[in-house]
UniProtKB/TrEMBL annotation:
Residues 2-93 form the BLUF domain. GO terms for molecular function: blue light photoreceptor activity; FAD binding. SMART domains: BLUF. This is BLUF domain protein. Pfam families: BLUF. It comes from the Bacteria. InterPro entries: Acylphosphatase-like_dom_sf, BLUF_domain.
Amino acid sequence: MRFVISYVSTAIRELHQDEVVNILEETQIRNNKHGVNGLLIYTSGNFFEVIEGEKIRITDLFKVIKEDPRHKNIILIFEKEVDKPLFKDKDANFISENTLHRQMEVENFLYYIKDLDEGTQTTVKNILKAIATNS
Ligand SMILES: Cc1cc2nc3c(=O)[nH]c(=O)nc-3n(C[C@H](O)[C@H](O)[C@H](O)COP(=O)(O)O)c2cc1C
């Protein structure tokens, strides 16, 4: 069963560009290796992440992420089973402000979440809007 978790969090302090790149790169490599798909955005001191993959892997990974001392105030936005992968591309997609990681337009992301219920989609859209406004 595929499972998706999405959360927002606050970086423990304003991170330097290279620290953000490190987290994004580390995350991308690990996730690709473990068949985890996702999206990680860092902007103005906040993270927004969506991780999707085998249920056990995703729930275990979220436990690890929650313990990571580089961020705090982790707020779960949604967690749910999905019957097909949210991300068509087999590689995880990661974007952040001012970095050259593979760019993914928010419009594309909204396409990927179109199978989630309407309330969840609205929540995600509002968060993305807030992130876009802050950056
Ligand atoms: C905001 C944030 C998001 C992260 N997202 C992931 C992720 O999607 N996948 C991952 O493997 N590690 C992610 N990490 C790193 C993990 O918290 C952890 O450091 C890493 O998985 C290594 O865990 P280990 O030392 O127990 O092997 C993230 C860290 C932060 C701060």
